[in-house]
Amino acid sequence: MLKEYRTVSEVVGPLMMVEGVEGVKFEELVDIETQTGERRRGRVLEVDGDVAVVQLFEGSAGINLKGTTVRFLGRPQELGVSEDMIGRVFDGLGNPIDDGPRIIPDEKRDINGVPMNPVARDYPSEFIQTGISAIDGLNTLVRGQKLPIFSGSGLPHAEVAAQIARQARVLGEGEGDRFAVVFAAMGITFEEAQFFIDDFNKTGAINRAVLFMNLADDPAIERIGTPRMALTCAEYLAYEKDMHVLVILTDMTNYAEALRETSAARKEVPGRRGYPGYLYTDLSTIYERAGRIRGRNGSITQIPILTMPEDDITHPIPDLTGYITEGQIILSRELYRRGIEPPIDVLPSLSRLKDEGIGEGRTREDHADTMNQLFAAYASGKEARELAVILGDAALSDTDKAFAKFSEAFEEQYVNQGYDNNRSITDTLDLGWDLLKLIPRVELKRIRDEYLEKYLPEETEGVEE
After folding, report:
1. Nearest residue to 184 via CA among 212, 205, 204
2. What 3-state DSSP class applies to 129?
3. Rounded to 5°, angle at Cα 443 from 442 and 449
4. Helices 425-436/367-391 angle, 10° precision
5. Do residues 147 and 306 lie in contact, with contact meaning Cβ atoms separated by under 8 Å?
6. Could you tell me which of 218, 278, 210, 283 has the C-alpha nearest to residue 253?
7. Cβ(88)–Cβ(98) under 8 Å?
8. Where are the beta strands (DSSP E) in 177-258?
């Protein structure tokens, strides 16, 4: 029998204090009925003796302390999951917003998930093709990995996210039929939400995707639950339906801001830049839900996207994200100003698991060597271009000029592929070999001779020695 309480003592922002409670547990779902009969939902954030702190999902506006009734439902916040969720659009609380019928769930799951036993984790080792050369060729995404994208205010991370969502797939016979995308947007504008929905519908990507949309004017507490809703759906599809699921979360900065807002309402002692001291722990409860489990065919790969305030990579959000995840893809404001699409800066970008997903049987036997050579040549070319700005072209050797020419071609042809160009890994590797023809053969020191003979015969040498 559920008890009703009329002992609301205080409402502060999104928080409500209820006194005289018994048997209430952390994360328990709460049903609130206002004096006008309106029903709202919340969850227990803290219990101290007989006082419970309730976090409101829909905000506290219009709540009268004396006329409000509170019921604790004895269960955590849950999401009804089903394979029928694929192709549908939901709000941040898991309610359909696409004019389709309500989902009849196969089961209901706690959105906070179940901790994954580290011993049961399987090491990520399969290649995921995003169709973007700067990622596939140089900072490869591996199935089961968590690889964030670090962006900045005004940079086209929305376009990059949409491109990955519609192009990503796993290679292998029959694998593509078991691939799904779970896309969660937090704190975005109505126009951005419409852009994502229209893009998914127009390209047909909606047929393999589940979308969760939390808008900027939705309550902060809903924003905190949205990524957990998405991951709960992903876990069901991956571990119960044996699907390979790519989870894209944008924008984690908005999530962290909502967490800071709630922490301030609770009057907690702030940490760095006002964020709660448990920001690292909270982010890890999201990021660590990616991975593979031994004995299960499915997997969850995660791409969190965040905007770095003032392009500061040492800001707490990207800083802590970098500690938890396995690398980062960085968008460059300089490349964006020059019209490079997508503006991925490959040199500071990193995928720590890239070597596990490439090579013979996964991509191609020459992938590792060409990747290392492209990195080295591009770095040398950028140094040569910077030297030319200071000393002039006359100060450069013929080799330096070749590297400078390569770096310009690399940005214009390899990185600048546009948002609608879906390149296979073979196309990406072949393009890399075409660009390496601009460099003297003796400078290709990171590629084994057998690969040079196979993919770059003598007659294709671009610079005479």
Report:
1. 212
2. strand
3. 60
4. 50
5. no
6. 283
7. yes
8. 179-188, 209-215, 244-250
**pLDDT tens, position by position, 421-448:** 999 999 999 999 999 999 999 999 999 9
Alpha helix (H) residue ranges in 90-219: 133-136, 157-167, 190-203
Please give the structure tokens belonging to residue 3.
């008890």
Q: How many whole angstroms separate alpha carbon 409 and alpha carbon 305?
A: 28
What percent of the chain lies above the pLDDT cut of 70? 97
The SS3 of residue 101 is coil
Give the C-alpha separation, 29 to 73, whole Å: 6
**Summary count for the chain: helices (H), strands (E):** 12, 22
Rounded CA separation 94/210 (Å): 11
Q: Largest Cα–Cα distance of the chain, in whole Å?
A: 88
Q: Which residue's entry shows tokens 């990193």? A: 350
Q: Is residue 175 predicted with pLDDT exceeding 70?
A: no
Q: Residue type for 165, please?
A: A
CA atoms within 13 A on the CB side of 352: 13
Query: Which two structure tokens, joined as six digits, stand for 64?
Result: 């009268």
Separation CA 21–CA 71 (nearest Å)? 10
Q: DSSP per residue over 27-51, as a string?
A: TEEEEEE-TTS-EEEEEEEEEETTE
HEC readout, 279-348: HHHHHHHHHCCCEEECCCCCEEEEEEEEEEHHHCCCCHHHHHHHHHCCEEEEECHHHHHCCCCCCECCCC
CA atoms within 13 A on the CB side of 373: 27
pLDDT digits (tens, 9 = 90+) for 129-145: 999 999 999 999 999 99
pLDDT tens digits, 265-308: 878 888 889 999 999 999 999 999 999 999 888 999 999 999 99
- Tell me how far apart the alpha carbons of residues 279 and 260 are, in angstroms, rounded to a whole number: 9
Angle CA 190–195–198, to nearest 5: 120
Between β-strands 149-152 and 327-330, what pairing exists: parallel, antiparallel or unpaired? parallel
Q: Report residue 295 as tokens.
A: 């004995």
Contact criterion met (CB below 8 Å) for 411 and 333: no
Using DSSP's 3-state secondary structure scheme, residue 455 falls into helix
Rounded Cα–Cα distance for residues 336 and 444 (Å)? 29
Written as one letter, the residue type at 411 is E
